[in-house]
Amino acid sequence: MLGCTTVSRMFAAERRQVILELVRTTGAVSLRELAAIVKTSEVTVRRDLRFLEQEGLLARRHGGAVATDRPSYEPTYTEKTHVRARRRPPSRAWPRPSCGPATPW
């Protein structure tokens, strides 16, 4: 554990760095353990884990976090499908006639 890094007051960036180092060295850390090491509430640690996960630096799991080998940023499924949907041309119910009556029959 990183016992020497526990201090009474840490800035968010310092706290996140300690969390990230610990997750990378051990592979997985519980939420309670992280809260005890950085001497803050579990709510604050959850917020830090959410931030680090959004940056692609770790993966949150129930009750803690695990190290990840993912790239620094990968779009979510929703973002990917939204991009694909924007590229698709609009569908039309009736084909447009080049000339002639407006009704299809």
UniProtKB/TrEMBL annotation:
Start and end of every HTH deoR-type domain?
A: 12-67
Disordered: annotated segments = 63-105
Q: PROSITE patterns from the entry?
A: HTH_DEOR_1 (PS00894), HTH_DEOR_2 (PS51000)
Q: Is Ligase one of the keywords?
A: no
Answer yes or no on keyword Ribonucleoprotein.
Answer: no
Q: Matching Pfam families, A to Z?
A: HTH_DeoR
SMART domains reported for this sequence? HTH_DEOR
> Gene3D superfamilies in the record, alphabetically?
Winged helix-like DNA-binding domain superfamily/Winged helix DNA-binding domain
Ordered alphabetically, the record's keywords are: DNA-binding, Transcription, Transcription regulation
> What Gene Ontology terms describe what this protein does at the molecular function level?
DNA binding; DNA-binding transcription factor activity
PANTHER family documented for this protein: AGA OPERON TRANSCRIPTIONAL REPRESSOR-RELATED, HTH-TYPE TRANSCRIPTIONAL REGULATOR SRLR-RELATED
This chain belongs to which protein, by name? Answer: DeoR-like protein with HTH domain
Q: Which organism is it from?
A: Labedaea rhizosphaerae
